[in-house]
Amino acid sequence: FYLQLHLVALNLPLSGDMRADFQCFQQAQLAGLTSTYRAFLSSHLQDLATVVRKTDRYHLPIVNLKGETLFSNWESIFNGNGGQFNTHVPIYSFDGRNIMTDPSWPQKVIWHGSTANGSRLIRNYCEAWHTATMGAMGQASPLKTGKLLDQKAYSCSNHFIVLCIENSFVS
Hints:
The protein contains 2 helices and 8 strands, in the order E-H-E-E-E-E-H-E-E-E. By secondary structure, it is mostly beta strands.
């Protein structure tokens, strides 16, 4: 067994008013995963690019729930190409469903609230993920672009995919 960080989706789409870190933690525990998971989102406290520990950003592959590689490492997501990934490698939810094909996520769009380099977009992160009002905006990425950090703004009232990243590996 080699070291890797898992990227997993929450079991349901969420609007801009979410307690995403808590839900990532809770759903990982319920799925029997022992490491810590954090939301794949920029927040008022932290830029997305720094969610993973510095020591783990360069050498650990980012994989899906079944261990298939999505990114060679965390840093490669933020190299300016918008987090381009192989769309033939599915992203799974904590309960094992493929978010790319499962109808539970009718809109195949991922919330992130970040620039292409993983910095927070203060105007476009649903007031630090505390509002689902129609007028507020959140930065998100349509999955069909094959990028996790494509730059599109949507109303925070939308229910989109929320990803979680394993941020501390427990051996």
